[in-house]
Specification:
13 strands; 49% helix; six-stranded mixed sheet; five-stranded antiparallel sheet; alpha+beta; elongated; single chain
């Protein structure tokens, strides 16, 4: 009726580690990948003298698998090496304690980051990466309390409070011990001294960077607003995800709340990882700026980035006339509103590090029957953002060549004498030159051109792929792996922790790809490396990675 159950039974032959996990288990995929990555940088930090250390490869395996299944505690990891068969398989039955695991993670942050690049290179060699990427960011809470974020005045008060308590403690000890010294400093005084050092360091950083507030526990974290409306000390985690298989090709952690300044560094990160720049870049409105569009144009990258009002205006949710309904007159340097009133140029707003902004203010709003549909204020204001530089026509540009080009494009159909011909060409050139200078010296056309591109069938189809490319990545990290708060502190360490999370994400994508395509991972890795799984030959992937990272 029942199968035989005997916990004391003995095996005739010993079990092999290979029997601990099923053939299609993701631990095997992780194991095969880590077996061929180059860990020379980690191995070089160990000494041949003294007691033999745990080999870094199994430590790296259990650490990455730890992140893959959503467990990041070193104490929990120590327990799993004793109770979980997948961890036993990866660690080869070795049982490092949590001190060893924690020390390994903290000591080898730099080389661990390089492993991310190697895994991305594997993906590239497996033809899992295309030419279109989506860039996005998500807020992840820092390992710090909101209550520890304080202003300069609050820090000064706490410093004074601790110093006062320290003086009182010294006075109390003098009454008890006199001129003698106790063998041990009181524990409460030691804690206060440590906190005082932290507060002074935080105060120094706050003053140097001219911040409003700083967190004492994690000085690099910043108060950021999350999607649920809460404000917490956090980091902004940036990723560039390839469209083909959702491979993360670049990752970074910044402490700026918005994404406005992240396009250029993320493109550079993609170049460093892949060795080339992407052909197409998709990003949401948080990345829109004239500077970003100009940068992407100069790089020759086809970008799809809407402005902040594009979606609202397209869905008809705006309560006032959008700017595109106002017509600009280049000769008069003014706008005309939908009611045909003239909106003249009024003033210039100076901006630090950016070109001056031109303001146009309407004086007829009080008389206009369309005012309620246009603005709630007394006067409707339109701004025009100029370019940062005068147009560059190239090294070989000359007035003569320009005149020849204009004449060839606008050649008169009737016979004219030489004098009339000169006047005609000069007039044409003058008109074209002024118009071209004006068009290039304003940046409004960048937004208008982007909107026109997004409104095309091709543009709409491409931009819709952004959400299905990058949004699932954050969902898998936060929901499936529980990555909602950093374990480490400081921008450098949190950056490495996030890269580790991105590395295991890519390993999971490799596992899914291999399973779907029915391919053998070991044979593919052997072909990519160009040798056995024990080494990296000179013509193999190690050389390609070195060239990519240079």
């Amino acid at each position: 009726m029942f199968r035989k159950y005997d916990q004391k039974q003995q095996f005739l032959l010993p079990l092999a580690l290979e029997d601990f996990v099923p053939e299609n288990h993701i631990a095997r995929v992780l194991n095969d990948i880590v077996d061929v990555v180059d860990i020379t940088a980690i191995e070089s930090t160990y000494s041949k003298e003294g007691c033999p250390a745990y080999h870094p490869r199994p430590l790296l395996k259990i650490l990455l698998y730890d992140y893959l299944i959503g467990i990041r505690s070193s104490r929990k990891l120590q327990q799993m090496t004793q109770t979980d068969t997948a961890f036993m398989y990866l660690a080869a039955m070795q049982k490092p304690d949590f001190h060893t695991i924690c020390r390994f993670r903290s000591t080898h942050l730099g080389p661990i980051k390089e492993i991310f690049s190697q895994v991305v290179t594997f993906c590239k060699e497996m033809d899992m990466i295309g030419s279109s990427i989506s860039i996005d960011g998500t807020k992840v809470k820092a390992n710090a309390s909101s209550r520890q974020s304080k202003s300069s005045d609050a820090l000064e008060k706490e410093i004074d409070k601790i110093l006062k308590e320290s003086i009182e403690t010294d006075k109390h000890e003098d009454e008890i011990y006199g001129d003698s010294t106790p063998y041990q400093i009181p524990e409460e005084l030691v804690d206060k001294k440590k906190r005082l050092e932290k507060i002074k360091a935080a105060k120094k950083k706050l003053d140097e960077e001219k911040l409003k507030k700083i967190n004492i526990t994690d000085n690099d974290a910043r108060i950021m607003k999350h999607k649920d409306g809460s404000k917490k000390p956090s980091y902004n985690c940036q990723v560039a995800v390839d469209e083909k298989e959702q491979i993360i090709v670049a990752a970074d952690v910044v402490n700026e709340e918005n994404d406005l300044h992240q396009i250029e560094p993320m493109i550079q990160n993609v170049k460093n990882t892949l060795g080339y720049k992407p052909t197409i870049v998709l990003a949401d409105a948080g990345y829109f700026s004239y500077e970003n569009l100009e940068f992407l144009q100069e790089e020759g990258i086809d970008a799809y980035i809407p402005d902040n009002f594009y979606k609202a205006e397209k869905e008809g949710k705006t309560r006032k006339f959008r700017k595109s309904l106002f017509t600009y007159d280049e000769e008069k340097d003014c706008y005309y509103c939908p009611a045909a009133f003239e909106i003249p140029f009024t003033r210039i707003q100076k901006r630090k590090g950016e070109p001056d902004l031109r303001y146009y203010v309407c004086s007829y709003c009080s008389q206009c029957v369309l005012k309620n549909a246009c603005t709630k204020s007394g006067k409707r204001t339109i701004t025009r953002d100029p370019s940062t530089s005068i147009p560059n026509y190239g090294k070989n540009w000359t007035l003569k060549s320009a005149l020849v080009n204009v004449f060839s494009m606008r050649k008169p159909q009737t016979d004219k004498n030489k004098h009339e011909l000169k006047i005609f060409v000069f007039t044409c050139f003058h008109s074209w030159f002024i118009e071209d200078i004006w068009n290039r010296c304003t940046r409004e056309h960048l937004m208008e051109d982007m909107r026109d591109k997004l409104n095309t069938e091709k543009g709409t189809e491409k931009y819709q792929k952004r959400m299905s490319t990058v949004e699932p990545v954050f969902g898998q990290m936060k929901q499936d792996r529980g990555f909602r708060e950093f374990l480490l502190r400081g921008k450098r360490k949190t950056g490495i922790e996030f890269v580790m999370m991105c590395t295991v994400h890519n390993i999971k994508k490799i596992a899914d790809f291999i399973k779907r395509e029915g391919k053998n991972l070991k044979s593919m890795l052997k072909m990519i490396v160009g040798g056995g799984s024990k080494g990296w030959n000179k013509g193999g992937i190690r050389a390609r990675i070195t060239n990519t990272l240079c």
